[in-house]
Protein backbone atom coordinates (compact mmCIF):
# COMPACT_ATOMS: atom_id res chain seq x y z
CA UNK A 1 0.00 0.00 0.00
CA UNK A 2 1.38 3.40 -0.93
CA UNK A 3 1.51 6.08 1.66
CA UNK A 4 -1.87 7.84 1.49
CA UNK A 5 -1.86 11.38 0.15
CA UNK A 6 -4.59 13.28 1.98
CA UNK A 7 -5.16 16.91 2.81
CA UNK A 8 -7.42 18.36 5.47
CA UNK A 9 -10.41 20.46 4.51
CA UNK A 10 -9.35 23.37 6.75
CA UNK A 11 -6.59 24.82 4.62
CA UNK A 12 -3.65 23.01 6.16
CA UNK A 13 -4.70 22.21 9.73
CA UNK A 14 -7.31 19.89 11.21
CA UNK A 15 -9.40 21.45 13.96
CA UNK A 16 -10.50 19.26 16.86
CA UNK A 17 -14.05 18.92 18.17
CA UNK A 18 -13.42 18.41 21.86
CA UNK A 19 -14.68 16.87 24.09
CA UNK A 20 -14.56 13.31 22.78
CA UNK A 21 -15.90 10.10 24.31
CA UNK A 22 -15.17 6.40 23.88
CA UNK A 23 -17.92 6.27 21.26
CA UNK A 24 -15.59 8.32 19.05
CA UNK A 25 -12.76 5.77 19.22
CA UNK A 26 -11.63 2.98 16.93
CA UNK A 27 -8.93 0.90 18.62
CA UNK A 28 -6.61 -1.17 16.45
CA UNK A 29 -3.84 -3.67 17.12
CA UNK A 30 -1.21 -4.37 14.43
CA UNK A 31 -0.43 -8.08 14.61
CA UNK A 32 2.42 -10.13 13.20
CA UNK A 33 3.29 -13.48 14.74
CA UNK A 34 2.55 -12.24 18.26
CA UNK A 35 0.78 -15.44 19.27
CA UNK A 36 2.38 -15.66 22.71
CA UNK A 37 0.96 -12.32 23.87
CA UNK A 38 -2.14 -11.50 21.85
CA UNK A 39 -4.55 -13.50 24.00
CA UNK A 40 -3.64 -11.57 27.15
CA UNK A 41 -3.78 -8.30 25.24
CA UNK A 42 -7.21 -9.16 23.85
CA UNK A 43 -8.55 -10.08 27.29
CA UNK A 44 -7.34 -6.73 28.64
CA UNK A 45 -8.90 -4.86 25.71
CA UNK A 46 -12.21 -6.59 26.37
CA UNK A 47 -12.12 -5.24 29.94
CA UNK A 48 -11.51 -1.62 28.95
CA UNK A 49 -13.98 0.71 30.62
CA UNK A 50 -15.25 2.64 28.82
CA UNK A 51 -15.00 0.46 25.72
CA UNK A 52 -14.08 1.81 22.27
CA UNK A 53 -16.72 1.91 19.56
CA UNK A 54 -14.74 -0.41 17.29
CA UNK A 55 -11.83 -2.81 17.72
CA UNK A 56 -9.73 -3.92 14.74
CA UNK A 57 -6.82 -6.35 14.52
CA UNK A 58 -4.70 -5.90 11.40
CA UNK A 59 -2.98 -9.23 10.69
CA UNK A 60 0.07 -8.20 8.68
CA UNK A 61 0.45 -11.38 6.64
CA UNK A 62 1.36 -13.69 9.53
CA UNK A 63 2.42 -17.17 8.29
CA UNK A 64 0.25 -18.51 11.10
CA UNK A 65 -2.79 -16.21 10.95
CA UNK A 66 -4.42 -14.67 13.98
CA UNK A 67 -7.13 -16.96 15.30
CA UNK A 68 -10.54 -15.30 15.45
CA UNK A 69 -11.81 -15.58 19.06
CA UNK A 70 -15.38 -15.37 17.82
CA UNK A 71 -16.19 -12.10 19.59
CA UNK A 72 -18.66 -9.92 17.71
CA UNK A 73 -16.88 -6.77 18.92
CA UNK A 74 -13.72 -7.65 17.03
CA UNK A 75 -13.07 -6.98 13.35
CA UNK A 76 -10.11 -8.68 11.67
CA UNK A 77 -8.37 -7.29 8.60
CA UNK A 78 -6.05 -9.87 7.03
CA UNK A 79 -3.30 -8.69 4.69
CA UNK A 80 -2.00 -11.09 2.02
CA UNK A 81 1.66 -10.42 2.78
CA UNK A 82 3.83 -8.87 5.46
CA UNK A 83 4.60 -5.25 4.61
CA UNK A 84 5.63 -3.88 7.96
CA UNK A 85 4.31 -1.95 10.92
CA UNK A 86 3.83 1.43 9.24
CA UNK A 87 1.80 -0.14 6.44
CA UNK A 88 -0.38 -1.98 8.98
CA UNK A 89 -1.03 1.33 10.73
CA UNK A 90 -2.06 2.89 7.43
CA UNK A 91 -4.46 0.01 6.76
CA UNK A 92 -6.06 0.60 10.15
CA UNK A 93 -6.28 4.30 9.35
CA UNK A 94 -8.05 3.50 6.08
CA UNK A 95 -10.60 1.36 7.96
CA UNK A 96 -11.33 4.00 10.61
CA UNK A 97 -14.51 6.08 10.36
CA UNK A 98 -14.56 7.46 13.90
CA UNK A 99 -13.18 10.83 15.03
CA UNK A 100 -10.40 9.20 17.06
CA UNK A 101 -8.05 6.30 16.40
CA UNK A 102 -6.25 4.48 19.23
CA UNK A 103 -3.48 1.91 18.93
CA UNK A 104 -2.00 -0.81 21.10
CA UNK A 105 0.86 -3.07 20.08
CA UNK A 106 0.17 -6.80 20.08
CA UNK A 107 2.37 -7.25 23.17
CA UNK A 108 0.95 -4.30 25.13
CA UNK A 109 -1.65 -4.98 27.83
CA UNK A 110 -3.67 -1.89 28.84
CA UNK A 111 -4.98 -1.17 32.33
CA UNK A 112 -8.78 -1.27 32.54
CA UNK A 113 -9.00 2.56 32.65
CA UNK A 114 -6.38 3.16 29.94
CA UNK A 115 -8.82 4.57 27.38
CA UNK A 116 -10.56 6.70 30.01
CA UNK A 117 -7.26 8.32 30.98
CA UNK A 118 -6.21 8.83 27.36
CA UNK A 119 -9.50 10.61 26.65
CA UNK A 120 -9.14 12.74 29.78
CA UNK A 121 -5.75 13.97 28.58
CA UNK A 122 -7.01 14.52 25.05
CA UNK A 123 -9.96 16.61 26.22
CA UNK A 124 -8.32 18.55 29.04
CA UNK A 125 -5.30 19.51 26.92
CA UNK A 126 -7.20 19.81 23.63
CA UNK A 127 -4.57 17.47 22.26
CA UNK A 128 -4.33 16.11 18.73
CA UNK A 129 -2.31 13.11 19.89
CA UNK A 130 -1.83 11.40 23.25
CA UNK A 131 0.66 8.79 24.42
CA UNK A 132 0.33 6.72 27.58
CA UNK A 133 2.88 5.20 29.94
CA UNK A 134 4.30 1.78 29.04
CA UNK A 135 6.05 -0.19 31.78
CA UNK A 136 7.89 -3.47 31.37
CA UNK A 137 5.83 -6.34 32.81
CA UNK A 138 8.84 -8.66 33.10
CA UNK A 139 11.90 -7.39 34.96
CA UNK A 140 13.49 -10.52 36.39
CA UNK A 141 16.17 -11.57 33.89
CA UNK A 142 19.18 -9.32 33.18
CA UNK A 143 18.13 -8.63 29.59
CA UNK A 144 14.64 -7.59 30.67
CA UNK A 145 16.09 -5.33 33.36
CA UNK A 146 18.34 -3.73 30.73
CA UNK A 147 15.33 -3.14 28.47
CA UNK A 148 13.35 -1.57 31.33
CA UNK A 149 16.25 0.80 32.00
CA UNK A 150 17.48 1.64 28.52
CA UNK A 151 14.48 1.01 26.28
CA UNK A 152 11.79 2.56 28.46
CA UNK A 153 8.79 3.67 26.40
CA UNK A 154 7.53 6.47 28.58
CA UNK A 155 8.50 9.99 29.65
CA UNK A 156 8.27 9.66 33.42
CA UNK A 157 5.67 10.40 36.07
CA UNK A 158 4.46 13.84 34.99
CA UNK A 159 2.02 14.85 32.28
CA UNK A 160 3.77 16.88 29.61
CA UNK A 161 2.61 18.78 26.55
CA UNK A 162 6.10 18.74 25.04
CA UNK A 163 7.23 15.10 24.85
CA UNK A 164 10.13 14.42 22.49
CA UNK A 165 7.72 12.15 20.61
CA UNK A 166 4.89 9.69 21.30
CA UNK A 167 5.90 6.04 21.48
CA UNK A 168 3.67 4.07 19.11
CA UNK A 169 2.96 1.23 21.55
CA UNK A 170 -0.09 2.98 23.05
CA UNK A 171 -1.51 6.10 21.46
CA UNK A 172 -4.66 8.06 20.69
CA UNK A 173 -4.92 10.49 17.77
CA UNK A 174 -7.50 12.56 15.99
CA UNK A 175 -8.04 10.44 12.89
CA UNK A 176 -8.04 13.32 10.43
CA UNK A 177 -4.77 14.63 11.84
CA UNK A 178 -2.99 11.41 10.83
CA UNK A 179 -4.68 11.49 7.44
CA UNK A 180 -3.73 15.12 6.98
CA UNK A 181 -0.12 14.14 7.69
CA UNK A 182 -0.27 11.57 4.88
CA UNK A 183 -0.23 8.48 7.08
CA UNK A 184 2.85 6.63 8.29
CA UNK A 185 5.97 6.19 6.17
CA UNK A 186 5.73 2.61 4.80
CA UNK A 187 9.50 2.41 4.38
CA UNK A 188 9.76 2.16 8.17
CA UNK A 189 8.80 -1.48 8.50
CA UNK A 190 9.68 -2.19 12.13
CA UNK A 191 10.66 0.97 14.02
CA UNK A 192 10.80 4.76 14.07
CA UNK A 193 7.47 5.29 12.31
CA UNK A 194 6.14 6.69 15.59
CA UNK A 195 8.89 9.25 16.04
CA UNK A 196 8.74 10.27 12.39
CA UNK A 197 4.99 10.87 12.67
CA UNK A 198 5.39 12.82 15.92
CA UNK A 199 8.03 15.07 14.38
CA UNK A 200 5.79 15.72 11.39
CA UNK A 201 2.77 16.60 13.53
CA UNK A 202 4.75 18.97 15.72
CA UNK A 203 6.08 20.70 12.59
CA UNK A 204 2.47 21.18 11.48
CA UNK A 205 1.58 22.83 14.78
CA UNK A 206 -0.37 20.03 16.42
CA UNK A 207 -0.38 19.42 20.17
CA UNK A 208 1.00 16.12 21.48
CA UNK A 209 0.59 15.10 25.11
CA UNK A 210 2.11 12.38 27.26
CA UNK A 211 0.04 11.19 30.22
CA UNK A 212 1.43 8.74 32.80
CA UNK A 213 -2.11 8.19 34.11
CA UNK A 214 -2.88 5.97 31.10
CA UNK A 215 -0.93 2.84 31.97
CA UNK A 216 -0.08 -0.18 29.86
CA UNK A 217 2.32 -3.08 30.29
CA UNK A 218 4.84 -4.49 27.84
CA UNK A 219 4.71 -8.29 27.71
CA UNK A 220 8.00 -8.72 25.86
CA UNK A 221 10.66 -11.13 27.11
CA UNK A 222 14.27 -10.87 25.95
CA UNK A 223 17.36 -13.04 26.27
CA UNK A 224 20.99 -11.96 26.43
CA UNK A 225 21.17 -12.66 22.70
CA UNK A 226 18.01 -10.83 21.59
CA UNK A 227 18.10 -7.67 23.67
CA UNK A 228 20.75 -5.72 21.75
CA UNK A 229 19.41 -6.92 18.41
CA UNK A 230 16.09 -5.37 19.40
CA UNK A 231 17.85 -2.20 20.52
CA UNK A 232 19.68 -2.01 17.18
CA UNK A 233 16.32 -2.06 15.40
CA UNK A 234 15.38 1.08 17.29
CA UNK A 235 18.38 2.88 15.80
CA UNK A 236 18.80 1.38 12.34
CA UNK A 237 15.56 2.81 10.92
CA UNK A 238 16.77 6.38 11.23
CA UNK A 239 20.08 5.30 9.70
CA UNK A 240 18.21 3.90 6.72
CA UNK A 241 16.46 7.22 6.12
CA UNK A 242 19.82 9.03 6.36
CA UNK A 243 21.52 6.67 3.91
CA UNK A 244 23.98 5.16 6.40
CA UNK A 245 23.67 1.70 4.86
CA UNK A 246 23.83 2.64 1.20
CA UNK A 247 27.34 4.11 1.15
CA UNK A 248 30.45 2.52 2.64
CA UNK A 249 31.87 5.82 3.87
CA UNK A 250 28.70 6.53 5.84
CA UNK A 251 28.72 2.99 7.22
CA UNK A 252 32.23 3.63 8.55
CA UNK A 253 31.25 6.96 10.12
CA UNK A 254 28.37 5.21 11.83
CA UNK A 255 30.81 3.11 13.89
CA UNK A 256 31.94 6.16 15.84
CA UNK A 257 28.88 8.38 15.68
CA UNK A 258 26.23 5.78 16.51
CA UNK A 259 27.67 2.49 17.73
CA UNK A 260 30.39 3.71 20.07
CA UNK A 261 28.51 6.93 20.79
CA UNK A 262 25.52 5.06 22.18
CA UNK A 263 27.76 2.56 23.93
CA UNK A 264 29.72 5.28 25.76
CA UNK A 265 26.52 7.02 26.83
CA UNK A 266 24.95 3.84 28.24
CA UNK A 267 28.13 2.72 30.03
CA UNK A 268 28.56 6.09 31.72
CA UNK A 269 24.89 6.22 32.68
CA UNK A 270 24.99 2.83 34.38
CA UNK A 271 28.28 3.53 36.15
CA UNK A 272 26.93 6.81 37.52
CA UNK A 273 23.76 5.07 38.72
CA UNK A 274 25.71 2.05 40.01
CA UNK A 275 23.82 -0.35 37.76
CA UNK A 276 26.90 -2.53 37.40
CA UNK A 277 24.74 -5.55 36.55
CA UNK A 278 23.88 -3.92 33.21
CA UNK A 279 27.39 -2.88 32.13
CA UNK A 280 28.21 -5.91 30.01
CA UNK A 281 25.27 -5.14 27.71
CA UNK A 282 26.40 -1.51 27.41
CA UNK A 283 29.95 -2.48 26.45
CA UNK A 284 28.59 -4.94 23.89
CA UNK A 285 26.58 -2.29 22.01
CA UNK A 286 29.25 -1.23 19.45
CA UNK A 287 30.27 -4.86 18.99
CA UNK A 288 26.79 -6.17 18.18
CA UNK A 289 25.66 -3.02 16.35
CA UNK A 290 28.64 -3.12 13.99
CA UNK A 291 28.01 -6.75 13.05
CA UNK A 292 24.32 -6.03 12.39
CA UNK A 293 25.21 -2.88 10.44
CA UNK A 294 27.44 -4.88 8.09
CA UNK A 295 24.77 -7.55 7.62
CA UNK A 296 22.24 -4.90 6.58
CA UNK A 297 24.78 -3.14 4.35
CA UNK A 298 25.46 -6.45 2.59
CA UNK A 299 21.77 -7.03 1.94
CA UNK A 300 21.41 -3.57 0.43
CA UNK A 301 24.70 -3.74 -1.51
CA UNK A 302 24.99 -7.33 -2.75
CA UNK A 303 27.58 -6.34 -5.34
CA UNK A 304 30.18 -5.47 -2.68
CA UNK A 305 29.55 -7.52 0.48
CA UNK A 306 32.19 -8.15 3.08
CA UNK A 307 32.64 -10.08 6.30
CA UNK A 308 33.18 -8.42 9.64
CA UNK A 309 34.35 -10.71 12.44
CA UNK A 310 35.15 -8.56 15.48
CA UNK A 311 36.79 -11.51 17.23
CA UNK A 312 39.40 -11.60 14.46
CA UNK A 313 39.96 -7.86 14.86
CA UNK A 314 40.13 -7.62 18.65
CA UNK A 315 42.24 -10.27 20.33
CA UNK A 316 42.84 -8.85 23.79
CA UNK A 317 40.00 -8.39 26.28
CA UNK A 318 38.89 -9.74 29.67
CA UNK A 319 37.99 -13.46 29.35
CA UNK A 320 34.54 -12.99 30.90
CA UNK A 321 33.69 -10.28 28.38
CA UNK A 322 34.91 -12.41 25.48
CA UNK A 323 32.71 -15.31 26.60
CA UNK A 324 29.72 -13.00 26.89
CA UNK A 325 30.30 -11.48 23.45
CA UNK A 326 30.68 -14.97 21.96
CA UNK A 327 27.27 -15.90 23.35
CA UNK A 328 25.39 -12.92 21.91
CA UNK A 329 27.14 -11.95 18.65
CA UNK A 330 25.16 -12.74 15.46
CA UNK A 331 26.95 -15.11 13.08
CA UNK A 332 28.51 -13.72 9.90
CA UNK A 333 28.90 -15.50 6.57
CA UNK A 334 32.44 -16.87 6.58
CA UNK A 335 33.14 -17.04 2.84
CA UNK A 336 33.04 -13.27 2.24
CA UNK A 337 36.22 -11.18 2.00
CA UNK A 338 37.27 -9.04 4.96
CA UNK A 339 37.38 -5.25 4.69
CA UNK A 340 40.58 -3.78 6.19
CA UNK A 341 39.25 -0.23 6.27
CA UNK A 342 36.17 -1.13 8.30
CA UNK A 343 38.20 -3.36 10.61
CA UNK A 344 40.81 -0.65 11.19
CA UNK A 345 38.20 1.93 12.13
CA UNK A 346 36.54 -0.46 14.56
CA UNK A 347 39.91 -1.48 16.04
CA UNK A 348 40.98 2.12 16.65
CA UNK A 349 37.74 2.94 18.42
CA UNK A 350 37.76 -0.23 20.53
CA UNK A 351 41.39 0.32 21.55
CA UNK A 352 40.85 4.01 22.26
CA UNK A 353 42.06 4.90 25.76
CA UNK A 354 38.69 6.19 26.97
CA UNK A 355 36.84 3.12 25.70
CA UNK A 356 39.39 0.75 27.22
CA UNK A 357 38.94 2.57 30.51
CA UNK A 358 35.27 1.62 30.37
CA UNK A 359 36.11 -1.99 29.52
CA UNK A 360 38.45 -2.16 32.53
CA UNK A 361 35.75 -0.71 34.76
CA UNK A 362 33.40 -3.45 33.60
CA UNK A 363 36.01 -6.07 34.47
CA UNK A 364 36.59 -4.56 37.91
CA UNK A 365 32.98 -3.84 38.87
CA UNK A 366 31.33 -7.09 37.78
SS strand fraction: 5-15%
**Strand order across the largest sheet:** 3-2-1-4-7-6-8-5
Radius of gyration: 22 Å
Main sheet: strands, sense, barrel: 8 strands, mixed
Q: CATH homologous superfamily of the largest domain - what is it?
A: Spore Coat Polysaccharide Biosynthesis Protein SpsA, Chain A
Could you characterize the architecture of this molecule?
43% of the residues lie in helices and 14% in strands. The chain has 366 residues and is α/β, with parallel strands linked by helices. It has 2 domains: 197 residues, Spore Coat Polysaccharide Biosynthesis Protein SpsA, Chain A (Alpha-Beta Complex); 139 residues. An 8-stranded mixed sheet has the order 3-2-1-4-7-6-8-5, with helices on both faces. α7 packs across α9, α8 runs antiparallel to α9 and α9 crosses α11.
Main features:
Spore Coat Polysaccharide Biosynthesis Protein SpsA, Chain A, 366 residues, alpha/beta, 14% strand, 2 domains, 8 strands
What are the SSEs and their pairings?
Blueprint: E1 25-31, H1 38-46, E2 54-59, E3 74-78, H2 85-94, E4 100-104, E5 108-110, H3 114-124, E6 129-136, H4 142-150, E7 170-174, H5 175-180, H6 193-203, E8 208-218, H7 227-241, H8 248-272, H9 279-300, H10 310-313, H11 319-328, H12 340-350, H13 353-365
Parallel strand pairs: 1-2, 1-4, 2-3, 6-8
Antiparallel strand pairs: 4-7, 5-8, 6-7
Amino acid sequence: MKRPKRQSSTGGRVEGKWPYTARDVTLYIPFYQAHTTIQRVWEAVRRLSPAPARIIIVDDGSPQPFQDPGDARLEIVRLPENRGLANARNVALDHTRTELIAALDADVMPAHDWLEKMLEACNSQRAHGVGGRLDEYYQHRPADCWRARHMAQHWGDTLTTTPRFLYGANTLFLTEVLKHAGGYDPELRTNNEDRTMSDLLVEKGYTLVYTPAARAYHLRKDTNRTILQGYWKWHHARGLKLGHFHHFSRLCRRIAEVNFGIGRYRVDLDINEKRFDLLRFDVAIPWVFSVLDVQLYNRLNPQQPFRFDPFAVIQKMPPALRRFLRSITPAMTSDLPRNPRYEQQFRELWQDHEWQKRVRELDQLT
